[in-house]
Amino acid sequence: MIVFVRIVGGVLGVIIALSLVDLANPAFDVATPQGLIVLAIWLVAWFAVGFSIMPYVTVQPAAWLIRTTLDLSTGEFVGAVAGLTMGLLMGALLGLPLSNLAPPLNWLAPLGTTVVMGLGMMSMTVAKRHDIAAALRAYGLLPKRPSDVRPSEPSDGPTVYVDTSAIIDGRIADVVASGFLWGTLVVPRFVVDELQAIADHRDSSRRSRGRRGLEILAVLQKDPRVVVQLVDEDVPELDTVDAKLVELARRAGAAVLTNDYNLNRVAQLHEVRVLNLNHLANALKPAFLPGDAMRVKVIQQGKEPGQGLAYLDDGTMIVVEGGGTLMELEVDVTVVRVLQTVAGRMVFAQPRGEL
């Protein structure tokens, strides 16, 4: 591909060279051997120039443009295209009166005005895309986001400040639907802004998580069992979202709902009540005692020789001693001991026939 582009560049160089040749010049007199040699050297030089620089003015700029476009988020790309279009139109209109200037300003001034306006408007629309989108939503030109819905009146239940991690996780909607969480869920504006920033992130996985969080927030706003309040409360002297959330909850005497281990620890240090969905999930897993019987399917080898691993429906790991030879078989086992770790609960068991 590069060789073909270079050859095309060389041919264009030869065409440009021929267009610049003045056959009336004695140096290019093709009737003499010296003129033919000079003409040949002229054409070869222009061929070499075109052959050398063609990839740098075509392929490489195009590859850079493609990489840059792929790195842009959807909001940045739409803002750049809209800003560039508006800037070019404004530049063209402003350049019309400048075309009456004396040459060469009659074409340099309109061209420069158009380029400057196009690039300037593109930069401004990308930088201020969130504010522009908010203004368009305010005038009804764009549909409102779930986060733009007016907060409802506080309820009589507990007040809980919700962290970004708990919203993105999604299980909060199921907990609310089950009736175990009620009252007022307070979502500060800086949490919504963090969700929006994640939804606009260049990385596709982070972008999908942010959009999931906004969808979960919309589901919670429609659920009659809780009241979701979007508040503009802030703590300007603090920088991080976690610190702001803990301080607001401390001042209000409220709890914090999160999945973040670090936020959990910080809130406990400030004597703020924490509702951790991961702790709730672990607490609801079935309790096992030594001597309990169960039937499991060994699906893989364990770390220790002869061990087999099985998993319950809730993800609890069952380590079957001597189960390495029972791969892909359903066996009756008896619980020997239970180990609680940071990652969760591990149950050690032995096949019933070996006890």
Walkthrough of the structure:
With 355 residues, the protein is α/β, with parallel strands linked by helices. Helices cover 52% and strands 16% of the residues. It is built from 13 helices and 11 strands. The chain has a 6-stranded mixed β-sheet with strand order 6-10-11-9-8-7, with no helix packed on it. Strand 4 (255-258), helix 12 and strand 5 form a beta-alpha-beta unit. The chain is elongated, with a radius of gyration of 34 Å. Mean pLDDT is 83; it is low at 146-154.
Task: Give the topology.
Layout (H helix, E strand, L loop, with lengths): L1 H19 L12 H25 L1 H13 L2 H22 L9 H23 L1 H10 L20 E4 L1 H6 L1 H8 L4 E6 H11 L4 H19 L3 E6 L9 H12 L2 E4 L2 H9 L4 E3 H7 L9 E5 L2 E2 L6 E4 L5 E4 L9 E11 L4 E7 L4
Parallel strand pairs: 1-2, 1-4, 2-3, 4-5, 9-11
Antiparallel strand pairs: 6-10, 7-8, 8-9, 10-11
Helix pairs in contact: 1-2, 4-5, 9-10
* Number of strand elements: 11
Return the domain count.
Answer: 4
Residue runs with pLDDT of under 50 for 5 or more positions: 146-154
Biggest sheet, in brief? 6 strands, mixed
Mean pLDDT: 83
- Named CATH topology of the largest domain: Rossmann fold
Oligomeric status = single chain
At a glance:
This protein is 52% helix and 16% strand. It has 355 residues and is α/β, with parallel strands linked by helices.
